[in-house]
Task: structure prediction
Amino acid sequence: MHRKLKNSELKRQTIAEFKASKKTPILVVLDNIRSLNNIGSVFRTSDAFRIEKIYLCGITAQPPHKDIHKTALGATDTVAWEYAADTKTVIEKLQEQDITCLAIEQAENSIMLDTFSPKKQQKYAIVMGNEVKGVQQEIVSMCDAVIEIPQIGTKHSLNISVSCGVVLWDIFSKINKLKQN
Result:
């Protein structure tokens, strides 16, 4: 028999412990995300996988905001974040720091997520695009690679918060396997 665990049994970190803990070497760049609920969901997912930082770019709203908080459930207090008016500037800055920038998009010569292999000791930034237009072409062209989530249904895309969860989980688990070797 399986019994659901109570929140008190989950042994979650406090905010201070989270902030002091070693982070997963992944950053998230949100390129003009319009939905406050999607932004909050990305914060919550980033907290779950102890992501290093989120960059909120362009029209992407910033905390504090009640609609972000509604889905983030406090993750805006744990996950580091920074606002930048221009996504291009963020990508340039990250690449100068030898961070590999990965656009999450459907594009020519993309790498399917299930075949993507992160490198040991490498830090990654995943770039998630606008709900309608996706990642700006200029940003796709600047990125070091494009990762695509394989899909076989009739729809051509996933919601940005779902895509972010899929990609973060996949890369997080692959990085953790690298640590074990």
